[in-house]
Amino acid sequence: MALVTCFEDLADLVLIVVFAYLSSYDILWGLTHLNHRLTMLITEQGFFSRINLSLARYHQFNRILNFLPLNHIQSLSIDSDASPFQLTHWPFLPHLKTLRIIGVYNYDDFSVFVLLHAAALTHLIKKQAKEWSR
Prior knowledge:
The protein is α/β, with parallel strands linked by helices and 134 residues long. The chain has 6 helices and 4 strands. The protein is 37% helix and 13% strand.
């Protein structure tokens, strides 16, 4: 007879190793709110502090944004090529220290976001989107 192990039966350390292979988007979209234990483990390991939802579609982004503890977010990555709407949809993040942004197309939105968070922001990383090669 074969032994069967369910995902929920895995030890916390095993789950943490699995989480290391996933993006913050994958963890937040796929694993948060499955059960109390996983949500607590995700919170304790700081997955709410480093956020990159560039791969999220519009409805996924809005749904995740509704349950994210905004007070925990310390690092935010936005890829304007993948998610051009995100820069204008994030609310105030009181503990945001690091902002990574790729592909700024609207400098007015970018300036408003940076000025809103200037008091707490310690690192601002802005990269240009890759040029299309011919």
